[in-house]
Amino acid sequence: MAELVLEKYENDFWKDVNNRKTWDQIIPGDLRNTKPVTLTKEVISQFARLIGEDNPLYHDEDFAKSTPFGGIVAPPTIHIVLMFACTDITDWMRSPGTINSGQNWYYNIPARPGDTITMRGSALDKFIKKERLFAVHENVFTNQHGQVVCTGRGQTIRPV
To answer: How does DSSP assign 30-87, residue by residue?
Structure first.
């Protein structure tokens, strides 16, 4: 399992683009290749700062201990970073030209420093509407105890 480090995250979406599945190759029900990653206080704090979140719950251990959470937690939107961290550069969701056409997220428990997060992701369906290629997908993130951190479903318009 890999420790999540934001600086080491690959952000060249064109790299390995020819190794990604095209819309024709996406098979509803097939699981995406994923790997577990471990969150750190540093990554949580850095992510919070990058999105402009200065709530001490994400940065200050003493403050966070005084809250009902009992310690530092990650902002709920950390799942976006986790989706990319848990998949490799060949994942079809990374294809340049992909357009997010809607999503719903459900949060169950917060992610915390030291949590090892595993993602289970798959395409649920695909269809063509007004000559655009759509993929419906679902992601479920669990921690090392098997507890569901969050789940999400969305649709993307796929590049041709």
So the answer is: PBPP---EE--HHHHHHHHHHTT---GGGT-HHHHHTSTT-S----TTHHHHHHHHTS
Element (H, E) at 9: none
| Nearest-angstrom CA–CA distance, 124 and 153 | 9
C-alpha–C-alpha distance, residues 6 and 44, integer Å: 10
Exposed, middle or buried by CB within 10 Å (0-12, 13-18, 19+), for 52? Answer: exposed
Domain membership of residue 64 (yes or no) is: yes
Q: Are 120 and 34 in contact (CB under 8 A)?
A: yes
133 falls within a domain = yes
Domains identified in the chain, total number: 1
Residues 80-137 pLDDT 10s: 889 989 998 889 988 888 999 999 999 999 999 999 999 999 999 999 999 999 999 9
Domain enclosing residue 140, as ranges: 32-158
For the whole model, what pTM was predicted? 0.89
